[in-house]
Amino acid sequence: MITIGQLAKYxxxxxxxxxxxxxxxxxxxxxxxxSGYRRYGANDAIDLIKIRTLAEAGVPLARIRGLRSATxxxxxxxxxxxxxxxxARIRGLQATQGRLRQLAAxxxxxxxxxxxxxxxxxARWGFTPRWVDLQRDLWVLVFATHPDHAFILFHDQAETTxxxxxxxxxxxxxxxxxxxxxxxxxxxLARRIADATxxxxxxDVLPALDTGSDIPSLIQGTVNASxxxxxxxxxxxRAHLGV
Length: 243
What we know:
3 domains, single chain, DNA-bd_dom_put_sf, DNA-binding, MerR_fam, MerR family transcriptional regulator, mainly alpha
């Protein structure tokens, strides 16, 4: 027979934890000896090891308490379920660890390969690193939150930038970043973009651009926040299009 302190040291938990298990009804509290000390035996140690193992596996204490009255078959079935749950958690943690290591190495780019290729083309076409980085951040956000709609929007943008004339509008948009919001070149660029948008999608622009999602406004809001000139451009383009 051993004391609560010896039991705690043997199993690898604190005496406070053992008392909590007593209070929660997980581990029966033994009688005290003539000196007033609780004395624990081998069965108590085995029970405590079981409780500790299940608790470390993430099993709630209430569920552990319920397993005390389970039959051998029920207990083995529960252990199998817990093992499956733990395996899934381990896989999730390993995936998180992989992303963390990618982040530490500066290689966190959770984007489809075709988006990565598109970003590389933007750089070759003369877009500024600021624009390419902004596009990457936006597509990471969009694909993470709305993957289905994201592909619709991405393919539309990829087709647009593949057209030399339309690509030049994007380039002009990119290079307007540092212009003052009242610069007359912004008014001219807004008109040209509105004309090209109307030509691409027809006069009823809004339905043509509607994907049933809030992604377009999310993207445009992020772009607008980057530059007063870009915000002014967006306002003028909307005015020209009547949206």
